[in-house]
Amino acid sequence: MNKLKAVFVVLLLSGMLLPPASSAVIVSELRPPIIIVGNVPKDFVVGPYEEFTVYFYIADDFGVTVGEGKVEAYYRVNDGDWKQAYVKKAAAGENWSLYQSIIRRFYGESQDFYVFYRKINLPGAPPGSRIEFKIVVTDVEGHVSYSPVYSYYVANPDGPKVLIVDPSVEAMAFEKSLDSLMAQFNVSRSFYHYNLSDFEAVAKPLTSLKPWMLSDHHWEGLAKYYNIKIVSPDELADALQSFQPQAVILSNLWLPEWGLSEDQISALEDYLETHHAGLVVTAGTLFDATNPQHVGGIEDPPSLAKLLGLDPLAIADAAKGELNLTQASAMVPYVNTGYSLVLSDRGPFNGGTIDVSTYSTVGWQCVLSPTHFGIAKRSVSRFASENGLRMREMGESVKNITGVQFNFSLSASMVLPEVISSMDVTDRGVVISHNGLRVELTVERKLLERVRLLHALKGYVPMLLARTGDYSGGILATEGDYRAVYSSLELEAGGAGELSVLRELVDWVLNYEPVQMPEVVILANDIDWGIKGNLLASQLGAFGLSVRHVTADDFEAYKGSRIIVILGGPDAYDGVGGYVRQVLTPGEQSAVRAGERGMFVKTNVWTEGQVVVVLAGQDRWATGGKIRDYMNGIDGSYLRILATFSVSVS
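-> structure tokens emitted (650 positions)
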């Protein structure tokens, strides 16, 4: 019987090891031991004061129990001092299914090496604790191997359920022992014939990154108060159904391997709408250089930008190709200009300032007013010019990951966000321009109407709950049938201040309250009302809005309404045209008369905090066509923008 098979028999019977290898060995080539950690807590979470037993397996060509050989394990709680854990022999029968899952990974011909099955018991801890552990093995030749440095958290089972999608928890475990793990992967193929391909799939992308691109996430700051679970993107859809969370956090999902598919995004949207669950999205999750599907496109596929009220970002991908900006991205991560975070008195906050040390992802500033956008652009451009090496390193890493070359110094000049911020929204699409090029993009109707509305509501929607002093970092929110937040800052990687902000955001999205929508006033003469206006009113009513039709004779009493829709052009009958002329500029009126334009959104026409939609054609039938187009563009996401506007101005 060969050595490996003999070991298996002995382990199965008693958990004992082979006789010790001789300490006098001849080293022919570098063959470090491999360490296979058989189990970590499910969803990286345990209950309060729950002990956890880690089983692990070691293979080595000359052994680890004599001479210089040794097996050590360590753990620590909440970044405290490392403590040694007592390593015990483990019997296969203690956890037979786990043992089988370990040994079935051997393949090919048997080799002449030793194997060892061991375990450690890790102590329990109170909710809000983070426990890390690692295994260090030295073989008789003096080769040292390290396991991943795994982390898990002690959750509060009585708290609200919060599902965290964060593959970096596992990735950081590998990052901390990456050189040793890569050596183990190589020798597992060349000598031990042990299948570590799934572990290697986690580790391989990390070899393309710089150390500053990954950070520990301190979910212990939430685990003290919430019943958290941490899953990978692939597990999201199943976890939504099995765990039924009250809030979902998408944590800095910037690597391509961490991206969500359109189907997963659709499943998430359905869940949020059905359960009124909260959503928090952080940092590089919207990084379009690596996960363009997260920001969407002009065909309006499911996207995270849509869930967050950041629909204008969907224009970026088409704009790049049309304006010769293929090496630019709309969003740029890993920006820290050193400014403090200024909290508003909106949403969960009551003002104040917090020092932040975490990175921000920039590009979302396209939804800001031109003044605030300009402030951000100048600060971020200065950061990029002072950190040219970092911009180049990020370009190299992204090229190694995606195969596409990006110029992040160019991107950090915010060229694409500026294109989006300054675009002109027409009846059919958007007109974008850069360096003398001017192009009109045809945009799917529902996306087009959301972009038209958001373009007019800059400063109102999304709500800016917090921002750094230079607007390089921000926290944006939308309301409606669920609450959603985008934090450009990686708050989960920060200290006590950032974690307190994150907790307040989670509390806020958890405490969903239906938005009391204002009445929609439709100003129309009897002709335009009869052609399409009554159908528009019915559609808005089906969305749950209260609608009132008024004529010009009665409109003076309703000029202060929050949401007004006017049907007809500057020459519309029965006094409607006179009000249209108060809304539209002379140039816009001429465009309506010429049949060039007919769909407009204006704000603060007769009062502050007001939105006015004008649907106008050259004649009554053309006006009916504009109403039809508008109706085709209204959906639940459009109503979320109006709901957020209503909350923003209340």
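The first strand starts at residue 34 and ends at 37.
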